[in-house]
Design brief:
The protein is an alpha/beta fold. The chain has 2 domains: 265 residues, 3-Layer(aba) Sandwich (Aldehyde Dehydrogenase, Chain A, domain 1); 187 residues, Aldehyde Dehydrogenase, Chain A, domain 2 (3-Layer(aba) Sandwich), CATH 3.40.309. It starts with 9 loop residues before the first strand and ends in a 12-residue tail after the last strand. Belongs to the aldehyde dehydrogenase family.
Length: 498
């Protein structure tokens, strides 16, 4: 049976390479549960060859001037924008996200970050500092790249996350071995070819395919200087442990169970819109989703009424229909996990099911085999429920009611995770006070979800290590060298004749 896309191979040392393992897996269209392409799996020797190519390329790329690097990365960003719709169509088929989303967010925001770092280094952003220590002594610093780095991608925002990792990595002068998620691997070769077309030297950006064993081999490889991982907390802790045990640099962007606090004076329309964006965008498959929605008891009836009125605006359907804004879950295994959580919420937690449930939404016949689930809202929840405590990573909102804002903040912080948080209120003084108390690395006031290239993002607690994007994001791909120069002509010493 012919598949929609040709077999995906590996990409290293500037060209497509056949894997030597003899193993393949299939990537599947989540909307229809039908295969899209065969993907070749990298063997350990393939990974070694890719790393060797990256090590050779590092000797050239790390010495390439900032402005020359910037021009190549700017060209790659321009190519991404030119081919936005073409790439977005593949992202839609591979990830199950509606084309209205992939065509306006996924490629665009990834290109934004690439362009941001190109402009940053081209404008002198990696220049060191000079300090006059005293009249005859001064200190200067230099920022140096780390070497060959590993980027391990996630399945929910495939090409965006690949660009978030590779943009800062390459701008800093490093080379990268990138492993896409085995659930959404089609973008890897496309991005590698765009980098090559833009002028990136062979071996600077390389792609290897496979599951967790490929990632584990990359993480433990002695040549790898840094590992950047995006994924669930439990896997991230294992990756960080393996990398840290070998003194590698790490950046971890992990999961969350983020609180969204609606204050008593909040604009109801904005609060409901924010809660829906924080739970149903990307079918709830976003690390920063605000799945614990804290609402004052005084607003219970009004909030629930307006929410139910807006639920029909979540439109499942053919993914390339311009009216569709809600797709299936990304894979069969994830679909089963989310449905199990919904059933648990009904049968064990005994939360009140306001809307949705474990059934599938009304979609055309040709989509009914796909991994679709209804947007689901539980109300009258409490902090001890499993659906409230654990990350579901699906379109499942839990509404929790509170009596005072102080109580809401305290309960919001009662979690091992701290990725994101937000508050809706008309009182900006209160907004700043609440945000300051929330234990999370990414916070929003009267909005939810926007994460521009200029904004450094990262988690607290078990939600991550380090940040991505913004000026701070590139620092994680560099090492500092400080030099003190003494011009006095004499060395201060305690070992002198008395």
């Amino acid at each position: 049976m012919s598949l929609p896309f040709p077999t995906r191979q590996l990409y290293y040392d500037g060209q497509v390479r056949a894997a030597s393992s003899g193993k393949t897996f299939q990537t599947v269209n989540p909307a229809t549960a039908t295969p899209l392409a065969d993907i070749q799996v990298a063997s350990n020797s393939d990974i070694d060859a890719a790393i060797a190519a990256a090590e050779r390329a590092f000797q050239v790329w790390s010495k390439t001037t900032y402005i020359a690097r910037a021009r190549i990365l700017q060209k790659a960003a321009a190519l991404l924008r030119e081919r936005n719709d073409e790439i977005a169509r593949v992202e839609t088929l591979d990830s199950g996200k509606a084309f209205t989303e992939t065509s306006t967010v996924d490629v665009v925001t990834g290109a934004d970050v690439l362009e941001y770092y190109a402009n940053f280094i081209g404008g002198g952003g990696l220049n060191g500092e000079t300090t006059q220590l005293r009249e005859d002594a001064w200190v200067y610093t230099k920022k140096s790249p780390l070497g060959v780095c590993a980027g391990i991608g996630a399945w929910n925002y495939p090409i965006q996350i690949a660009l978030w990792k590779s943009a800062a990595c390459l701008a800093a002068g490093n080379t990268m071995i990138y492993k896409p998620s085995e659930f959404t691997p089609l973008h890897g070769e496309t991005l590698a070819q765009i980098y090559t077309e833009a002028g990136l030297p062979a071996g600077v950006f390389n792609v290897v395919n496979g599951a967790g064993d490929v990632g584990a081999y990359l993480t433990s490889h002695p040549t790898i200087a840094k590992v950047s991982f995006t994924g669930q907390v439990s896997t991230g802790m294992k990756v960080a442990g393996s990398a840290g045990g070998n003194m590698k640099y790490v950046t971890m962007e992990l999961g969350g169970k983020s609180p969204l606090i609606v204050c008593p004076d909040a604009d109801l329309e904005s609060a409901v819109d924010g809660a829906m964006m924080a739970n149903f965008y990307s079918t709830g498959q976003v690390c920063t989703n605000g799945t614990r929605v804290f609402v004052p008891r005084s607003l219970k009836a009004a909030f629930e009424k307006r929410l139910l009125e807006k639920i029909p605006f979540v439109r499942a359907g053919p993914l390339f229909d311009e009216q569709t804004n809600y797709g299936p879950l990304s894979s069969e295994i994830h679909y089963k996990k989310v449905v199990e959580y919904i059933r648990y919420g009904i049968e064990n937690d005994r939360a009140t099911l306001l809307t949705g449930g474990p059934g599938k939404p009304d979609v055309p016949q040709d989509l009914q085999a796909g991994y679709w689930v209804k947007p689901t809202v539980f109300t009258d929840c409490n902090d001890d429920m499993r659906i409230v405590k654990e990350e579901i990573f699906g379109p499942v909102m839990s509404i929790l009611y509170y009596d005072t804002v102080e109580e809401a903040v305290r309960r919001a912080n009662t979690t091992e995770m701290g990725l994101a948080a937000g508050v809706f209120t008309k009182d900006l003084n209160q907004a700043h006070k609440v945000i300051d108390q929330l234990q999370a690395g990414i916070t929003w006031v009267n909005t939810w979800g926007e994460s521009p290239a200029e904004m450094a993002v990262g988690g607290w607690k078990k939600s991550g290590l380090g940040v991505e994007n913004g000026h701070k994001g590139i620092e994680a791909w560099l090492q500092n060298k400080s030099t003190l120069v003494d011009m006095s002509g004499a060395v201060a010493t305690v070992f002198a004749k008395l």
